[in-house]
Design a protein that fits this description.
five-stranded antiparallel sheet
């Protein structure tokens, strides 16, 4: 899972790697910052344990690229 992926949002490209993938949960590393996203009611959201929060449209782009 160490392949570098890219998410496109607002005319920018964000590079990341998937660190863990489970049903309803996705963990990534983007620019040395770990993020975990949880699927709630069909929408992917930030985990409460994240040090930094990512905006919802970028989360959607990350999840789409990681599938």
């Amino acid at each position: 899972m160490a392949d570098r992926l890219e998410a496109h949002h607002e005319n920018r490209i964000y590079y990341f790697t998937v660190t863990d993938k489970k049903p309803g949960e996705l963990s990534i590393s983007m620019y040395q910052t770990p993020y975990t996203f949880l699927e709630k009611d069909g929408v992917w959201v930030n985990s409460l344990g994240n040090k930094m929060n990512m905006v919802t449209p970028l989360i959607a782009a990350v999840v789409a690229a990681a599938v």
